[in-house]
Amino acid sequence: MNETDLHFFIDSTINYFEEITGEQPVTGIPYLKGKEPVVLDYSGIIGISGKRKGCVYITTTQEMLKNLAQIILDNDEATVETIKDLTGEIANTISGNVREAYGSSFMISVPVVVEGKAKDIRLPEQVQAFVIPITWKDFQSFLVVCLE
Amino acid sequence: MSINDKNDHAFSATNDQSGNSSELQMPLLQLVTENILNNAEEGIFFLNKFLELNRYYSKSIERILGITDLEEKNFIDILENRIPSQIIENTKEFLKLMFQDDLDEEVIKELNPLIETEFFYEDEWGIWTTSKYLSFNFRRVKKSDSIKFLLTTVQDVSEKVFLNQKLKMTEDRTQKQMEWLVNILHVEPEMLKEFFVGVEHELIRIEEVLKNSKDSKNHRELIEIIYRSLFIIKGNASLLDLRFFTEKTNLFIEKVLSLKNHDDLSGADFVPIVVSLGDMRDTLVEVRTIFKRISHFHIHFRIKRNYECELLVNSLKSLIKNLSKQLDKEVDFDYKDFDVLTIPYNYRQMVKDILFLLLRNTILYGIEEIALRKSINKNPHAMIKISSFVDNGFLGLKLKHDGRIDRIERMIHKMISKKNNDKVLESSFEGVQVTQLLCTPDIEFSKDNEALENYSMDMELLKRKLKEKGGRLKITFTSEDHCEFTILLPLSRMKSVTSSNSQND
Predict the structure, then answer these.
(1) How does pLDDT run across A25-49, given as a tens digit for each residue?
(2) Which domain holds residue B55?
C-alpha cells in the first residue's frame, strides 16, 4: 500500500460528497486500524482482487445517510431500504472510480452493504489497514482501506 | 448411452468408427467413461462452439471450480467474477480461434490465457477471500476434419504456484534480511529486546496520537509528538548501531519535517506519515522474527562477562575516535576509574546507552576543534573522563570533560529567553530547573535551533531512560573549567533481576 493508493481512495470519497452535496467533507488524520472494530450503522464494502488484493469499505451513521437522502432524494423520511441503497451507492461510486483507475487487470466486486454494528468487517490478514475519518456536516464516517 | 442433444450426438459420433462392433461395445465404453469422469483427479469437460459444457464432465471439475451442475453452463459465465475481465476477453478470443479449422492448433495453443490463472472465490458477503491457481488445457476434438468440441482439462496448480511465490518472496527478502541479520548480530539479545520494546512503545504512542487526534486543530503539536517519538527511536537505533533502522527512521523523520512548512494542514497531509508508520511496524515485525530465529545462537555463543566489559569500553573508545575524527577534534579518554564489573547485568545496556548519549553530546557540543583549543591556549587534546562508583544503594556514573561549555550555556540562555516570553525570569532558574530545561525539547524547526533541538531531544531521552529505572541526573559546570554529569541509578530495584541473571555471567 503506498501513499498514492491511499490518496486516491480519499479523493474518490471526498469528491463524491462534494459533487453530490456541494459541501466538501473534512478529512481527518488517518491512522492504522488496530484490533478494535471500525463499524458504524451502515457499511458499504468493496472487494478488490487481481493484481492487488484487498478490501475497501465506508462505514457511516444512519443520521448522516438520512441527511444525505434528504439532499439527494429530497426525501425527509428515508426508509431503511433507501439508506441501504445510498450506502451501496457511495461504495459503488468509490468502486467505479477504482475500476476506472486500476484498469481491467483488477477485479472490483459489487458493493456489499452491511446493516448494523457488526462485530467487525473481516479484512485480509497480515495486510495493514488504514482508517481515514471523514466528517461531513458534523457527521462522522470512516473510510477503511486494506490493500496489499 | 442415451444421446439426445446436439452435443451428445457429436460426442458419440467420434467413437463410432467400426460399425456394429462398436455398438456392442457401447455399455462397456459408457462404464469406462463414467469411471474415468468420476475418478479423474483432473477436471475434464467438453466445450462446444457455443462455449457450453456438455453433460460429460469429471466430478472433480465441480470441486475445482466450486460450482455444481455444470451441464450446459456457459464457460465464459463461469469465469465471470472469478478472474479479471481482461483475461476473460482474452479467453473469448482464444476459444474463438480454437474453433477455427484453418488455424493450426499448436500455434493457437500458445495464446492460451488460462495458464496458472488465479481464480477468486467469494465468501458469504460476496467478497473474494480465497483463491486458486488453475491451468486449463484445450484440445480439439474433430469429426471429418471439422472441430466439434474442445476437450478441456483443468489442473489445480495452487500448491505449485504458492510455493513458487513463497520461494520468490523469500529470495527477494533474503538479501534484505541478511543485511539486517548482520546488522543485529553484534548487539546483545538483552539490548535488542529492550530496543524492540522501546520501538514498540514509541510506535504505539504515534498510533495513539494519530487515532485520538480526531478533532485536533493543533496539527503542529501532533507533528511535534511524532517527531519526538521518532527521535527517540533513531537515538536508540544509533546507540546500538542498527543502521538500517536508523536510515528507515530518518526517512520517516524527513516526512514529518516536510509537513513543518505547511500552514494549513489537512488530514490527507498525514497520509505519508501513516504509510511510513505502517512500513515501520512491518519492519519491526520482520526484525523481531529474525531475532527470534537467531536468539538460540546468541544464547549458545554468549560471550564471557570479562569480554563483554572489554567490549563496552572498546565501543565507547570507538565512538570517541570516530566522532572526534569526523569533527576535527582530539580527545583523550580516561576510563581507569570506570569499573564495568560493578554494573549489574541488566543495567549494562542502560549504562551503555547513557554513556553513548553523553559522550556523543559532549563531543558534538562541548569539545572544541583542535584549532580553537590551540587559539585559547588549551591542550589541543580534550579530556573526557568517565568513572563509576557504588554509594548508598546507588550505582553512580560520572562523565567529566574539559571542553568549553559556553555553547550549552548559550542554549540555556536561548531557552530561558524563550521562556521569558511566558513571564518566567532568567534569575529564577536554578540547577534542577536548568537540568529540567535542558531535558525538555521544544521543536522550532529552524536551522538555528537544530543543535538545541537535538541536544534537548537527547537529554529528554536520557531523562526518560532514567525515570524508567528511578534514576537521577545532576549536571555541574563552570564556563571555563569543566562540565560534569552525574547519574545515579538505584541498585535495590535490580537485586532480584541481577541475581536471576547472575548465572549468565
Answers:
(1) 999 999 999 888 899 999 998 888 8
(2) 6-156
Residues of B with a Cβ under 8 Å from any A Cβ are: 81, 83-86, 89, 118, 120, 122-123, 125-129, 131, 207, 210-211, 213-214, 216, 219, 222, 266-268, 270-272, 274-275, 277-278, 281-282
Within this chain, do residues B494 and B400 fall inside the same structural domain, yes or no?
Answer: yes
Q: Does the beta-carbon distance from B126 to A112 stay under 8 Å?
A: yes
Give the confidence band of B206 by pLDDT, cuts at 50, 70, 90.
very high
Residue at grid coordinates 547485568:
B345
Q: Are A66 and A133 in contact (CB under 8 A)?
A: no
Question: Domain with B55 in it: what CATH number?
Answer: 3.30.450.20
Closest chain B C-alpha to A8 CA, distance in angstroms: 11
- Asked if residue B122 belongs to a domain, the reply is yes
**Does residue B61 lie within any of the structural domains?**
yes
The DSSP line for B30-90 is HHHHHHHHHH-SSEEEEE-TT-BEEEEE-HHHHHHHT----TT-BHHHHHTTTS-HHHHHH
Q: Is residue B1 part of a domain?
A: no
Query: Which A positions 9-68 lie with beta carbon below 8 A of chain B?
Result: 10, 26-32, 34, 45, 47, 49-51, 53, 55
Domains of chain A as residue ranges with CATH: 3-147 (3.40.1550.10)
- Residue B5 makes CB contacts below 8 A (sequence gap 6+) with B54, B55
> What share of residues in chain B are helix, strand, coil (percent, to 5)?
60, 15, 25
Among B118, B122, B270, select the one facing A30 at the smallest CB separation.
Answer: B270
Instruction: Residue B316: give its domain's CATH number.
Output: 3.30.565.10
CA atoms within 13 A on the CB side of B38: 6
Same domain, B283 and B316: no
Is the pLDDT confidence value at B1 over 60? no
- Whether residues B373 and B260 share a domain: the answer is no
Closest residue in chain B to residue A36, using alpha carbons only: B211
ipTM for the complex shown = 0.90
Q: What is the pTM of this model?
A: 0.67
**Number of independent structural domains in chain B:** 3
| B114 CA: distance to closest CA in chain A (Å) | 14
Confidence band, pLDDT 50/70/90 cuts, at residue B128: confident
